[in-house]
Amino acid sequence: MSWRATVLTLFPEMFPGPLGASLPGKALEKGVWLMETLDIREFARNKHRSVDDTPFGGGAGMVMRPDVVDAALGAVADRPGPVIYLSPRGRKLDQPMARDLADGPGVTLLCGRYEGVDQRVIDSRRIVEVSLGDFVLSGGEPAAMAMIDACVRLLPGAMGSEESLDEESFERGLLEYPHYTRPQAWIDHDGVERVVPEVLTSGHHEKVRQWRRAEAERITAERRPDLWSAYVAAGEEDGN
Ligand SMILES: C[S@@+](CC[C@H](N)C(=O)[O-])C[C@H]1O[C@@H](n2cnc3c(N)ncnc32)[C@H](O)[C@@H]1O
């Protein structure tokens, strides 16, 4: 059974969008994963077919109605995997979460618009909230795309070489080491010659491995003290 992404949105025409290109697009074509969108507007029942209304208590903006969103969720209740509401208030998406989701049968994603979704539907369906980061998007769709992309590339058969996954940023609690390709010596825009670190052209696999590990550790310690502390606490350093 293919991994299945079900997206509830007011803008189904946005999908697959970027997910139809490159790696996720090829995997979609191959049937490694399936994409389904549900137009929340189709579940609007009042005579104006409205999906939103003004907030109780006043204030700016509109809120997505619980009856409409709940009817849409009910229509896909049998889809596999958890239901997630993309929301800036949620737990931040990270690589372990993407891996957990990719290891499961799929995910149903609820995309908010306006000021978001009426709290009662989130409470009554015990929906998990997940955020892309500490910033506010105009809608959940770009967040859903990012989340699906992060999961799909982890699915068996989505990537050419499984090896490239193990070494990636976050997979071992570290950011990735720097990459270099041809030409070996390159003149930059200031006329400075920049050469590839010698060890990478030495043909000595163990030294390359050690250099990459040391660089990954250096970059992580410099840029992400939070990741570095967790890595040190887990006793992973020292070139294992
Ligand atoms: C304009 S935002 C609503 C922001 C909300 N009023 C607040 O201040 O928390 C509309 C929708 O975009 C989505 N969204 C915005 N920022 C997001 C983020 N950082 N991660 C995930 N989804 C986000 C959510 O689905 C949200 O319901």
TrEMBL record:
Keyword Methyltransferase: yes
Domain tRNA methyltransferase TRMD/TRM10-type as annotated: residue spans: 5-229
Pfam families registered for this protein in UniProt: tRNA_m1G_MT
E.C. code: 2.1.1.228
Location(s), subcellular: Cytoplasm
Catalyses which reaction(s): guanosine(37) in tRNA + S-adenosyl-L-methionine = N(1)-methylguanosine(37) in tRNA + S-adenosyl-L-homocysteine + H(+)
SUPFAM superfamilies found in the cross-reference section: alpha/beta knot
Coiled coil: none
GO biological process annotation, one example: tRNA N1-guanine methylation
Annotated S-adenosyl-L-methionine binding sites: 112, 132-137
Keywords of the record: Cytoplasm, Methyltransferase, S-adenosyl-L-methionine, Transferase, tRNA processing
Family matches, as InterPro entries: Alpha/beta_knot_MTases, tRNA_m1G_MeTrfase_C_sf, tRNA_m1G_MeTrfase_TrmD, tRNA_m1G_MTases_N, tRNA_MeTrfase_TRMD/TRM10
Single GO molecular function: tRNA (guanine(37)-N1)-methyltransferase activity
Superkingdom as given in the UniProt entry: Bacteria
Family to which this protein belongs: Belongs to the RNA methyltransferase TrmD family.
Subunit structure: Homodimer.
Role noted for this protein: Specifically methylates guanosine-37 in various tRNAs.
PANTHER family: TRNA (GUANINE-N(1)-)-METHYLTRANSFERASE
Name of the protein: tRNA (guanine-N(1)-)-methyltransferase
Source organism per UniProt: Oceanibaculum indicum P24
Gene expressing this chain: trmD
